């Protein structure tokens, strides 16, 4: 690859990132009118505290579908991180590996408990965590958005 090509590609990449972050901000605006995802009950939303230098962190919570319809949670976001996604940790030959999950599906009456070594929400590009130790997490299911408060818990010693 020529040097020019390299710079051109880097520039395109940067423009792409800028545009997508603008879209993210706009998409997050109507959240105040959100009614929440119908039938979805979320509890025990916690984030184990991480050192201030850490740019990534995991969030764990429990889901319960109390409706008679399948719920598809298609994305997750928070004002304190650039990107958030669903991850599933699996162990292959003794090595832990994180797999990206496109969405989370809950059948009627199904519950999912996220925990260390299993399913979690990965926050990337983590910014300063509010001093209150509580931040907002938004779960999206099409037009429906549930806003959840996540509590930062101190690490077990
Ligand atoms: Cu992860």
Q: What structural keywords apply?
A:
157 residues; nine-stranded mixed β-sheet; two-stranded antiparallel sheet; globular
Kindly summarize this structure in a few lines:
With 157 residues, the chain is α+β, with helices and mostly antiparallel strands. 17% of the residues lie in helices and 48% in strands. The longest helix is centred in the N-terminal third of the chain and has 26 residues.
Detail the topology: elements first, then pairings.
Elements: H1 3-28, E1 40-48, E2 56-65, E3 71-73, E4 75-77, E5 81-92, E6 95-101, E7 104-106, E8 111-113, E9 119-126, E10 134-141, E11 144-153
The structure holds copper (II) ion.
Copper (II) ion (CU) binds at residues 58, 87, 98, 120, 122.
Q: What's the level 1 CATH class of the largest domain?
A: Mainly Beta
Question: Which percent bin holds the helix content?
Answer: 10-25%
CATH topology of the largest domain: Immunoglobulin-like
The CATH architecture of the largest domain comes to Sandwich
Query: Considering the protein shown, what is the CATH homologous superfamily of the largest domain?
Result: PCu(A)C copper chaperone
| Tally of strands | 11
The low-pLDDT segments are: 10-33
Task: Describe the global form.
Answer: globular
| Total number of distinct structural domains | 2
**Number of discrete helical segments:** 1
Average predicted confidence as pLDDT: 83
In this structure, how is the largest beta sheet organized? 9 strands, mixed
Heterogens = copper (II) ion
Strand content: over 45%
């Amino acid at each position: 690859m020529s040097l020019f090509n390299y710079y051109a590609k880097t520039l395109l990449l940067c423009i792409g990132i800028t545009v997508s972050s603008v879209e993210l901000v706009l998409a997050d605006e109507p959240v105040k009118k959100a009614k929440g995802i119908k039938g979805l009950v979320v509890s025990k939303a916690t984030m184990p505290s991480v050192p201030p230098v850490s740019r990534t962190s995991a969030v764990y919570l429990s889901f319960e579908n109390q409706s008679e319809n399948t719920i598809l949670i298609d994305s997750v976001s928070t004002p304190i991180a650039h990107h958030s996604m669903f991850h599933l940790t699996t162990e292959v030959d003794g090595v832990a590996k994180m797999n990206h999950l496109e969405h989370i599906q809950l059948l009627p009456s199904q519950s999912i408990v996220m925990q260390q070594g299993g399913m979690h929400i990965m926050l990337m590009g983590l910014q300063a965590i509010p001093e209150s130790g509580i931040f907002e997490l938004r779960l999206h299911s099409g037009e429906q958005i549930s806003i959840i408060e996540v509590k930062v818990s101190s690490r077990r010693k």
